[in-house]
């Protein structure tokens, strides 16, 4: 039985097993607990991940890559929703 935690976005109670990294929602502020699978704070539910987090990443992929690079995370696969992409910085921000 997995512990239930509160979604950091909508406050819904859900299984910790289903938690997602909410970064960069809502304002691109990064906290290490966001990407810690064992964290019980600063994690979001699947609904919020699909409706808020993924669109924010996809809509500004260049900034997302920039911020990941700044955090030393660009060499990892980044999750932008349907697929896991190995990220290559686009030639132009609109690509
Ligand atoms: Zn939620």
Q: Secondary-structure blueprint of this entry?
A:
Layout: E1 4-6, E2 13-15, H1 46-59, H2 61-70, E3 78-79, E4 84-85
Antiparallel strand pairs: 1-2, 3-4
Outline:
The protein is of the alpha+beta class and 95 residues long.
Please report the number of helical segments: 2
* SS-based class: alpha+beta
Number of strands: 4
> What coarse outline follows from CA principal-axis ratios?
globular
Largest sheet: 2 strands, antiparallel
List low-confidence stretches: 86-95
Record the strand order, biggest sheet: 1-2
N→C terminal distance? 43 Å
Bound molecules: zinc ion
- Indicate the proportion of strand residues: 5-15%
Can you walk me through this structure?
The protein has helices at residues 46-59, 61-70, and strands at residues 4-6, 13-15, 78-79, 84-85. By secondary structure, the chain is an alpha+beta fold. A hairpin with a 6-residue loop joins strand 1 and strand 2 (13-15). It binds zinc ion.
Descriptive key words:
95 residues; alpha+beta; two-stranded antiparallel sheet; 2 helices; 4 strands; 25% helix; binds zinc ion
């Amino acid at each position: 039985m997995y512990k239930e935690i509160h979604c950091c976005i909508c406050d819904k109670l859900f299984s910790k097993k289903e938690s997602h990294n909410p970064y960069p929602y809502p304002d691109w502020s990064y906290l290490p607990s966001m990407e810690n699978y064992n964290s019980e704070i600063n994690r979001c539910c699947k609904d919020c991940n699909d409706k808020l987090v993924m669109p924010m990443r996809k809509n500004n992929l260049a900034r997302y890559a920039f911020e990941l690079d700044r955090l030393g995370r660009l060499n990892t696969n980044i999750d932008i929703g349907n697929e896991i992409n190995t990220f290559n910085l686009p030639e132009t921000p609109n690509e």
